[in-house]
Amino acid sequence: MSDGHGLVESLTLLSEREIDPTGPIYVRLFKDHPELEAEFVMDIDGGVRGSMLSQAFDVLIDLAEGEGRFAETILTTERQNHEGYGVPPDTFFLFLSTIRDWARESLGGEWTPQMEADWADVLAQAETVSA
User: Fold this and answer.
1) pLDDT number for residue 130
2) Which tops the pLDDT comparison, 77 or 98?
3) Which of 59, 49, 62 is nearest to 20 (CA)?
4) CA 98 to chain centre
5) What pTM was computed for the model?
6) What is the DSSP string of 65-99?
């Protein structure tokens, strides 16, 4: 099991670039899964997208740091909420993978094997913690 430092390091490196990741992450999500774009039709100002992304970062960091204080509650609650919207559980977790894919692509040569291992570990935790 990895220690999560690589995931946190990847997000720290990206945050130092002072680029809002919301747009690029959702562009990637909708490119890879065009059927999901319709789920956001009411999000005219992007507030829901920003809130979801912020919450996802909090969950990822919580899991990566091994504390899990609120990740389980958030994931369980949001998975149930999304099922209520008609979003299947497997689809719900695509968002976290999309964030990883964006981070990997954005960091390019700065992406390390440790980052890859830690992201894989945290994504696996996220899928099992709320099952």
Assistant:
1) 61
2) 98
3) 49
4) 6
5) 0.89
6) TT--TTHHHHHHHHHHHHHHTT--HHHHTHHHHHH
DSSP for 15-83, written as a single string: HTTT---HHHHHHHHHHH-GGGGGGGTT-TTSHHHHHHHHHHHHHHHHHHTT--TTHHHHHHHHHHHHH
Q: How far is CA 125 from the centre of its chain?
A: 12
Asked if residue 94 has pLDDT above 80, the reply is yes
Check if the beta carbon of residue 55 is closer than 8 Å to that of residue 78.
Answer: yes
The SS3 assignment for 3 reads coil
CA dist 121 and 46 (Å) reads 30
The CA distance from 55 to 71, in Å, is: 9
Are the C-beta atoms of 64 and 4 separated by less than 8 Å? yes
CB 29 within 8 A of CB 94: yes
What is the number of other CB atoms lying within 10 angstroms of the CB of residue 1?
9
- Report the distance separating Cα 26 and Cα 53, nearest Å: 9
Rounded distance, CA 55 to CA 24, Å?
17
* Measured distance CA(58)–CA(52) in Å, rounded: 10
